[in-house]
């Protein structure tokens, strides 16, 4: 992709990968420009979502972003806290996060996943007004849906390695499997 093609994707919306009653609905912060340009979630080279999903045991092989629709077969889906695409998450306002949290809550109540997994604890804190949230399961629920804050898989989140992220995602997978 050229810089002009990426910039042209700014503010685009990317359709969710969802179905009713998913085991886990993964939630990114917002689509990056590569995601918006391709229409595939976590599409930027260097984003570790797809390798982490596989390394943690959620998928039997590493999927390519273009294979995102296969997630539903595994009881998984993808959405975002904020729908509009930007080059970086720090371009989003706190108000966008809070409004995104409200919209996300409505979506979760409608789709009823067993777990909502927010990939970015800082985004979770702002969107849901929980300043003390830490990585891991949260006490808050949305209806019957439990919430887990996960590390952001962006390559910019360097203090989490692929191995340590996969361990945390695997903790969620184990909890989701225990739920039935």
Structure characterization notes:
This protein is α/β, with parallel strands linked by helices. The protein has a single domain (3-178), classed as Uracil-DNA Glycosylase, subunit E (3-Layer(aba) Sandwich). It contains six helices and five strands. The chain has helices at 3-8, 33-38, 49-55, 94-111, 121-128, 162-178, and strands spanning 24-28, 76-80, 115-119, 136-142, 145-150. Helix 3 packs across helix 6 and helix 4 (94-111) packs across helix 5. The mean pLDDT is 95.
Mean pLDDT score: 95
Number of domains: 1
Going by helix content, strand content and strand pairing, the class is alpha/beta
How many alpha or pi helices? Answer: 6
Write down the Rg.
Answer: 15 Å
Within CATH, the superfamily carries the name Uracil-DNA glycosylase-like domain
Major beta-sheet overview: 5 strands, mixed
